[in-house]
């Protein structure tokens, strides 16, 4: 099979398209013929080995040579003890723990896969698992009349966070670059901010802040919150995340606010509700563009540099 591999940390130039032996599924696993794999910011971070938490499990070199965790494809073979899926089933899922999606074939734990809704293409399905889980869990505090700010609202997870908050009746502020302002408006944002020109932490106060690219001080985050408000970050620099976990928790308790990291639960039960709403047309799967397997380096760079308007997907087959 063909696969894109990395044997060291670095930029897109360390990636190579090679031919590898076909993998074999073990107990509880399936062999998946990959049709599409979306690019997540975690792929870019693991490629570069930065922030520091991207090196967990592989301090000097990547623990896994093939990136790509949000996959959609067709089951080709079953490992011992698998009864939840059958050969020929169209499935999708999040393989964050094992990766391997930037390849023609990959091995996946059967428990991490779900049937692909007929109303979604393979590209659309691959765009959803991680982003849908983040959006569903992050917006559970959004409701009618709440003031919600999504920082990074024009990216893969942000577009779903924005839509879910807006559908819940919240007043939504979307923050991203100038190139994404029209996109955020079209998806339901009431207010859009270009973070290079306006400081969103001074535009509140908000009842809920979902920060997908945390890099500010906890004092700025506390300033953005109304009394009783919640700040939750999902991604960002190691320094920002550690400050939120330590100083942020204490500062929040002292001021009647809640500052913390969104602990995202994984698995089909956490992305299927959003996928069903997308299949029904209630929510939009915003795919920025697709790339062939040969152009995985360009796909990763587009996401890593923050240029994507929605989700970037690699069409493997």
TrEMBL record:
Listed CDD domains: MDR1
Domain Enoyl reductase (ER): 10-314
Protein name per the record: NAD(P)-dependent alcohol dehydrogenase
Taxonomic placement: Bacteria, Bacillati, Actinomycetota, Actinomycetes, Micrococcales
